[in-house]
């Protein structure tokens, strides 16, 4: 007879309990209301303030780069260059008024019209350190060389002036002086207005030359800093405003002088545009020298048209 005690059947092991973390277990998902349609995405948040032109930096840029007046250029970026080139005619107006004032003072002191004309031509050269005249000479050397773009740009970078530059400088300075002599001989007011109109139109030509779509011939220098910086419509608006302001200055002497001043600005900008396109074809774009040549070309064309009247 088996006397071994009867063993109870083995119980299955109990499942392990999760460690107590102090958090209540997440509720099991149950049937709830059906989710609604996802909200439509709204418009992106607007910035607090739209980007605007820094006109104070633009004025500093214009006067600091286009004149020798003691103006410190605070910024040297594309936004400042855009505003500066839009303000370029204002710098030209100041230069022109200074030139007109000196010519008028010499006339009041008893000097003749030729001497007043020479002094009036000298003022823009002094107030720009001769940079525009130097650019005119270098551009003439580059165009006159007849060489490919890279070689022509290398010639323009030299410190010396070639025969094409010398001849161009002489003709331009003689033309400006002769035109102003005739204008001053006709009266101080006529010569003074002509000096201011020519200088303003010359810098307006720079605004148009810095418009979008005009490339830089070199990756460095002032030409690269301002090339293509000005949108087309603002550049055109500045040109129209320049024509209107110069016509208003001529209106002080009557309707015919007003028309003559407006035509002088249009002729100046047209002459500069022709030179700009030729330089873009020859050099592949603009440089600081080309900008100087454009300014002197526009000023000369304006003075010649005013003297013809």
Structure notes:
Helix 1 packs across helix 2 and helix 5 crosses helix 12. With 309 residues, this protein is mainly α. The chain has one domain. Helices cover 65% and strands 0% of the residues. The chain starts with 54 loop residues before the first helix and ends with a helix. It is globular and about 50 Å long. It contains twelve helices and no strands. The longest helix is centred in the C-terminal third of the chain and has 29 residues.
Fold blueprint:
Elements: H1 55-66, H2 78-86, H3 88-108, H4 113-127, H5 131-145, H6 149-156, H7 163-185, H8 188-209, H9 222-226, H10 232-251, H11 255-283, H12 288-308
Helix pairs in contact: 1-2, 1-3, 3-4, 3-8, 4-7, 5-6, 5-7, 5-12, 7-8, 7-12, 8-10, 8-11, 8-12, 10-11, 11-12
